[in-house]
């Protein structure tokens, strides 16, 4: 994985935490979003830990540019805020989730593993808080337009695909969806992959955001 943060102490701490885990490897560190593309091209990481606030190119712009490139790595956003419109922008751009910088080491390791496996790193509670932050009264016409778009996209799904999408929107894991909808985990994974293709999305976090935009959860 690649660590992107302008704070040398944060980079050192994350490198120490993650570098000591047998199945994880830190392949590089950079201090600004503008250095990400070259580092990814050089090191080919599976996951990028991306800080948001950096002095030259911020992590939001870097994430958007990175996720538009062919076969991009997964992005895990690092932030000091858990209900920030900037975090939501990163998630809409295709980031696989986010971590607070004071997250305990074991949870950081677990989050990196989940993102590398294509799983979301947002709890239902955090997802709800993020959505509330940008879909309240201040969202105005932007929120209405987003809702109309989400409804239109989800209307194109089959009934079963819609059920899986709503479960993803609640933050359910594949195993939880399997138990709830009486299908195998492999079948759930196939449905999630189909949803991403039909909806033109990068990961299940974006599916969850779309479901929340449509006010289905």
List the helices and strands and how they pair.
Layout: E1 2-4, H1 8-19, E2 28-30, H2 36-43, E3 47-51, H3 59-67, E4 74-79, H4 85-93, E5 97-100, H5 105-116, H6 124-135, H7 140-154, H8 159-169, H9 174-181, H10 185-199, H11 204-213
Parallel strand pairs: 1-2, 1-3, 3-4, 4-5
Helix pairs in contact: 3-4, 6-11, 7-11, 8-11, 9-10
How does this structure look, described?
Pfam families: GerE, Response_reg. It comes from Micromonospora zhanjiangensis. With 217 residues, the chain is an alpha/beta fold. It folds into 2 domains: 2-121, Response regulator (Rossmann fold), CATH 3.40.50; 140-213, Orthogonal Bundle (Arc Repressor Mutant, subunit A). Helices cover 56% and strands 10% of the residues. The chain has helices spanning 8-19, 36-43, 59-67, 85-93, 105-116, 124-135, 140-154, 159-169, 174-181, 185-199, 204-213, and strands at residues 2-4, 28-30, 47-51, 74-79, 97-100. The chain has a 5-stranded parallel β-sheet with strand order 2-1-3-4-5, sandwiched between helices. α4 links the parallel β4 and β5 (97-100). The longest helix is centred in the last third of the chain and has 15 residues, at 140-154. The model has no long low-confidence stretch (mean pLDDT 84).
